[in-house]
Amino acid sequence: MIFLENYNIEDYDRPSVTVDIAAFSIRSDENENYKRDSVQKLSLLLIQRGVHPYKDCWALPGGFVRKGETIEECAMREITEEAGITPNALMPDAVFSSPGRDPRGWIISNTFVSVISEESLNAHGGDDAADAKWFDVEFTVNGEDAVLVLRSAESLITAKLRMKSVKFGYPHFEIIDSGGLAFDHAEMIACALYRLRSIIENFDIIFDFLPEKFTLSALQRVQEAILNTPLLPANFRRKASPYIEETDEYLTGAGHRPAKLFRRKQGG
């Protein structure tokens, strides 16, 4: 390749590249995952940083891309090393490249969204993470103003943001108060939640929050938890019907009459 004789990569400034993962799950207030009267909550996995910068602050799992690996491989490695969890899949979400977003230098981050099954919720800190924990999520957008509340048994994080624009379905937020979250992770989480809500209504990934077989009420509660709004059962079931099919099985016990189990329609 003759052109390489006149090309010197050192002539160009190069940033470092990182990944950050917004891993969500639907958690029940009770151990019985899909009991009719249980309350389903949308939760987000955060790690407590064990190193500077932002030592002891809560952040999304993530880290630097190593030589020879893709950003997807890096994302899977980092969430496994830092939280002890290996997702089934990761969905690319956005790129964050604002100058000064990281005090260590010019660092561009690629964010991913993942869905973790309830059976895999036992997160623990590892690698350079001092701790890993699931936080219940509340996210409200009122015009340009957005508030992100993350709550665990011991910690409460409240971040305030302003929505600057939405282009091609991707929002752009400005952080007003990070609530103590590291880096620009308040913006990353807000963007991930906005995107998750926009696609969950189309049943694109809703089934990733559920076991292979589920009740219709469980399916509805997942969408309600993500959208943070109640849904009319009749309307929801009408919208869900093209994507699901009945099984011959029922959910029994839990003090209620048996409920029909459904599954995702093949090709749906």
Structure summary:
The protein is an alpha+beta fold and 268 residues long. It is built from 4 helices and 13 strands. Helices cover 18% and strands 37% of the residues.
CA-based gyration radius: 20 Å
Strand content: 35-45%
Output the helix-strand order. Answer: EEEEHEEEEEEHEHHEE
Terminal residue distance = 47 Å
Overall helicity? 10-25%
Give the number of helices. 4
Describe the protein's architecture and organization.
This protein starts with 15 loop residues before the first strand and ends with a strand. The protein contains 4 helices and 13 strands. The chain has helices at 71-83, 185-200, 216-227, 233-240, and strands at residues 16-28, 40-49, 58-59, 62-64, 91-96, 107-115, 129-142, 145-151, 156-167, 170-177, 213-214, 244-251, 259-264. Residues 31-37 have low confidence and may be disordered. With 268 residues, it is of the alpha+beta class.
